[in-house]
Amino acid sequence: MTSFVEYDAPDFDRREPQAVRGLVHNPLTLAPANALDAEEMVDFFRAFEEVAFCDWQDTTRLRRILLRDTTLAYVARNRYGTLVGAIIGGLLGTRGTINHLAVSEPYRQRGIGETLVERLIRDMKRQGVRRLFLFVDDDNATGQSFWDSQGFNEARGETTYEKDL
Q: Number of folded domains in the chain?
């Protein structure tokens, strides 16, 4: 399991990773994402074939999303400040959604995805969320296995409709 140094301050300057060196062995930082992270997060999510990040989701749009009170997002960075994991979720009354989760291939199987999900769930519970939902592509077996391991269940008897606007 990877060690994390966790920051709650939304204004934590993640561009200076030396501030956390030496606190734990080979630390990763976990911090709330903010508008300054938007461009890097867009590039990060687009690098993953299995993440359904649409062409129209750009830096400006993500920056606006990250500034909303209904958005919860976190980033995990290695000791050099490189983004290695990220999650974005949204609040919909007593329901929440996990929109995107990705962890860099060399950092998988270290508990980073699980830690990001746990942090998101913790903060959603604090906001009064009682149920979470998310979408996983039918051909994303790795994603399906991960979400199964996190205690999520496939919804039965539902059909998803969508429309680009």
A: 1
